[in-house]
Design brief:
isomerase, 9 helices, two-stranded antiparallel sheet, Nonspecific Lipid-transfer Protein, Chain A, five-stranded mixed beta sheet, Maleyloyr_isom, 50% helix, MDMPI_metal-binding
Amino acid sequence: MSTWNAMSYEGKDTILRVVRTEAEHFFALAEAPGAWERTTPCDGWTSRDLVAHIIDTTEGYFKAFDAARGTGDAVPAPHGLPAMAGKVNEAATAFRGTPQTEMMDRLRADFEKMQGILEAVGEDDWTGFLVTHPYMGPVPAFFYAAGQLMDYGVHSWDIRQGSGAAHGLHGDAADLLVPFMFEIWRGTVKSDQVSEPFTIGIRVTGRNAGDYRVTVGPDGLSYETGELESLPAYLEFDAGSLVLTAFGRSNSGTVRGDLALAEQYLNLFFRI
């Protein structure tokens, strides 16, 4: 199993190393002169609100792990991804008025605590210990490492985007996140807008390169690896473009085949 597949225990050290790198980048970006109150691609949020969001998210992870271990209070039933945008906005904006130094100190402390939790997860628990995510329900422990990488990696991109400078998404973070983007799509698809099921292809390059057949219908989205040439359309992505597209940050990808079908697919998701 590849050390770049964070869904396996072999990928644990790799993703925790890359999460730390992305977190350090995020800390530096958030503390750069002029960044704190600068707008970002997240509607209504500045860099300050991104910091607050990651604090809220990470501290929610602490409660989820305690509940799963039986050492804390029970967590509420999952809210579902459609409710995520409103709830995280409410939590993040509640921190407004808190001094920057206090927030950054708290963020760094939360990061180290979460790294310690994940570093202590053993081989069986990495894939077998289920922890209830506030929006996605019970997921294996490894998903929380990916959640940290999504927060620090994608939100670092958000701060850079707000600066107006040319930039990109680091390949290590993007490669590790590729397999998780299909789960993001599965959780954010607007299946009520699909009357007839259809299948489209996704081709991704990078360390987690592969060809995927994605089927969307009124009952949701499913995916599997497989050949693409027989399909009416498929999209080609590098790893970074796939991540940014799945998170609604960019309109990217090369369409092979039916352009209208590809665009139908790309417009079937709500942003989180």
